[in-house]
Design a protein that fits this description.
By secondary structure, this protein is α+β, with helices and mostly antiparallel strands. The protein has eight helices and 25 strands. Helix 3 links the parallel strand 14 and strand 15. The two termini are about 45 Å apart.
Amino acid sequence: MTRHPLKFSFISLVIITCCAIGAQAQDINPSEWKFQSQRKEIAPVGFIDSAVTYEGKPTLVLAGGGKEYSNGYWYTIVNTEPGEYFQFQSNFITTNIEESNRSVLARIIWQDDKGKRLGSPEYPASFPAGTNGTWNYIKQLYKVPKEATKAKIELVYRWDANGVVRFAGTSFQKAAAPKPRIVKVAAVHYKPHRSTTQQNLIKFSNFIATAASQKADIVCLPEAITLAGTTNDYVSASENVPGPTTEYLGKIAKKSNLYIVAGILEKSGDVVYNTAVLIDRNGNLAGKYRKVSLPQEEFDGGITPGNSFPVFDTDFGRIGIMICWDVTFPEPARVLAQKGAEMIFLPLAGGDITLAKARAIENQVYVVSSTYDMITAVFDHEGKVVQEAREKNPVIVVDVDLNKQTLWPWIGDLKSRIPREIPSQNAIH
């Protein structure tokens, strides 16, 4: 029997909701924090500021002090209850920090009765509330590990010479267990032959109806569904967006009460794009993505690349979209994940399954492919195929829990570590 490489527990990123037990969480008093650094030579400047306050209370300040290698933190140790859920929250405000996700963070280290470290540290997620100079927050819900009776909380500043961060309103309180956030995700595997645009739309509408009969929340169709199997080329198959195809799909989405992701060819003035549209449950065009990474066949055929990677908020979470050749490169999926995409939908003609798995693993997001010549499937955070659609079973509907945490051996929660440990953009460029 093959040993499963991962184990799972539940987590809530509190993007939508999180319920605390009892009254408002009690903040940890600034006097209970201590300043520490790994080495005195790299210590940032640290002090408690009574002049700049948060809700009338002093703030915990860390500053680079001219050291680009500065690294240090405020810390305190609080009591926990094994097996119970605890909510962490801290507010922070920054000045002159280039890469806030790398330089400003919180870390939770579980400990037993004797102060021995247990498992891997946790890295709660950050949620910027606005522009530089406004208060942001770090917040996440955790199930306390077995035997963890204490938690060391660190509020960290590092690797920026000239920045300043102020922490305030930090709490770690018992909370209610999160509810699973289940999304029914559907994908379609069908390759038209000797067809027309209208025949393609009718055929795909039948597959959407199959997904809807299984209460799917969202269904992914392949790339260029109005072109595949027809005698058209990129230009002759192109149309306005919104236009006839989005109107057709909109009626189906509204009738079926689901979202639709579908690849079409978009005409905008003199320009033609390889585009994927997102139709919402009310039949409205909720957004579109213009393919950024073009293979030679497409630019030779008159296609122009897009220039951005948008993300879209749905009633179940935040999603991103890539198209076919995008999956060949790490950047598109990385950008979408950094913008908070929890799932990436991938309409494509064909490609390498290994690359789809890699994009899921390296960003810890679900990837949903719909294709003609690669496999149509839902890939989880391991890169494992949860379920695959085939010619004899062209529609799959998979339950995905967006509140499920993946813990890797020796690594812990890789998803939360990625933004904290990603290479600096200054080093890349």
